[in-house]
Write a structure and sequence with these properties.
alpha/beta, 18 helices
């Protein structure tokens, strides 16, 4: 079978203990919900609501009923059926999403850093459309538009330039309705949007244990229109959560579980994707380390816990790096953490193309991450053992001192090996003849090759007009 390699940072007893602590927090302490209508609706649905303090508690029975209600699997749909993602991954492997909310762009042509623009983000989305191993496209932040509507502009760019499933979050309460108007304009109707939701939304906790108005507004509209919800915890170990990996995993679990329960109370059976974007505070510098060993351990523990205890698909921000360039540190951090998290149970690895913490994106790194994903998936697949793969007949046929180059068994399986074009295995003289280029230089060459043929989606003119009109309306209403 595939997906045979598993990593278990937690024992079954650990998982049970963490779950009980989650129930203890949610039933005894509760969480703060800063949205009046949501408080009212949650109270009507069975939550224990204190309107004055805005604290919400859930009984054990409510929590466990919500987990029974949450679908164990669902299909994340983009603009084209060929890109649909069945979650969890049917082969126990993982999907890859690009990085979210980037404001800086590492320019392969100049080697410098520049602001993300609508044009650069459009190219980014078009690049994702043609990269075979980047399965979902996350929103970025164009810096050449009104900041009050940057998320509306960003979603419009996504919807017009890639048909892969999108990963989106709102930037402010006032922009949320416009994001859904854009989806309706792209889909054509409420019924069409329910059938093909185009994305999943990332409502996030304000760690510790607070939920903002825009995130509850997002959840309620997702429930209204049938758009999947990816409840996301942003715990910063040592800053907004416990510094220990176990404590980080616990708070991620609490914050995600609270949102799963809220979603199921508002819309029983609504699809959810449990998500962790947790990191760790470096006490020596005050920086958030998003790819440290402690972060990787906390993420993997959270992935295993949520998969086992909640029984829903899981996304983890594991393709991250703290380096500002595509160097050995970046490759090591991304490959180790993504593999570790996938083997622990994550169905989606988020962060392809990310450099330098949480603000910087690189198209060359996106190409590297695409090729690297193919390698990591092969490791996660593990070793399949059956009569054919054992090759006993081939061993006996070759005999002592024989060779296998001409055997049918070799011919049958010789094309199964992963051979990403950027990770070369050429002879030394061939490599030198081709310019002695390192991985990053080869990625830049591949990016430029792909860039020459990129194009936006071929959408009907009236659909593009309606979407652009939503953006103009948002700019007029919200823009400074």
């Amino acid at each position: 079978m595939s997906g045979t390699l598993r990593i278990q940072p937690l024992s079954e007893s650990d998982i049970s203990t963490i779950y009980e602590k989650c129930v203890e927090v949610l039933s005894g302490h509760g969480v703060k919900v800063d949205h009046e209508l949501a408080l009212e609706r949650l109270g009507d649905a069975g939550a224990m609501v204190d309107v004055d303090t805005r604290m919400v508690k859930f009984t054990r029975e409510t929590i466990e009923a919500a987990l029974r209600s949450a679908p164990k699997e669902f299909v994340a749909k983009g603009g084209a059926e060929k890109h649909d993602l069945l979650l969890p991954h049917p082969e126990r492997s993982f999907y890859t999403s690009s990085c979210i909310q980037s404001m800086l762009y590492h320019d392969p042509d100049t080697g410098g850093f520049r602001d993300v623009t609508e044009d650069l983000f459009a190219e980014w989305c078009q690049l994702i459309e043609v990269l075979p191993n980047i399965d979902a496209c996350a929103i970025q932040t164009p810096m050449d538009v009104p900041p009050e509507t940057a998320d509306v502009h960003g979603l419009n760019v996504q919807l017009q330039n890639t048909s892969k499933p999108l990963n989106v979050l709102a930037y402010c309460m006032e922009s949320v309705p416009y994001l859904f108007e854009l989806l309706l304009a792209r889909a054509g109707s409420e019924e069409a949007l329910r059938e093909r939701p185009l994305l999943w939304f990332d409502p996030t906790s304000l760690s510790p244990l607070v939920y903002k108005d825009m995130d509850l507004e997002t959840i309620m509209l997702c429930c209204k229109y049938g758009v999947p919800v990816a409840p996301c915890s942003l715990v910063l170990g040592g800053g907004t959560g416990p510094i220990t990996p176990a404590g980080g995993a616990l708070l991620v679990g609490v914050e995600v579980l609270a949102m799963i329960v809220m979603v199921q109370l508002l819309a029983p059976g609504h699809p959810v994707l449990a998500s962790g974007y947790n990191s760790t505070l470096d006490m020596a510098t005050g920086n958030a380390n998003i790819a440290s060993v402690e972060t990787g351990l906390a993420q993997a523990a959270a992935a295993q816990f949520m998969k086992a205890a909640f029984g829903v698909p899981v996304l983890m921000a594991s393709l991250w790096t703290d380096s500002y360039v595509s160097d050995g540190q970046t490759v090591m951090a991304k490959s180790l953490n993504a593999t570790f998290n996938a083997m622990a149970g994550a169905d989606v690895s988020y962060g392809a193309g990310r450099l330098g913490g949480s603000t910087l994106a690189s198209p060359a790194q996106l190409v590297i991450d695409d090729r690297m994903t193919a390698i990591l998936r092969r490791y996660v697949d593990g070793v399949q053992v059956d009569e054919d793969t054992l090759g006993l007949d081939a061993i006996l046929q070759a005999g002592p001192g024989g060779h296998y180059i001409k055997l049918k068994h070799t011919l049958k399986h010789c094309r199964e090996a992963v051979r990403p074009d950027l990770f070369i295995s050429d002879p030394l003289d061939t490599w030198q003849t081709n310019g002695s280029k390192d991985l990053y230089a080869r990625a830049v060459d591949k990016y430029r090759e792909l860039r020459s043929s990129l194009a936006p989606l071929d959408l009907p003119d009236d659909v593009k007009r309606d979407m652009d009109n939503v953006v103009k309306a948002a700019d007029k209403a919200l823009g400074a």
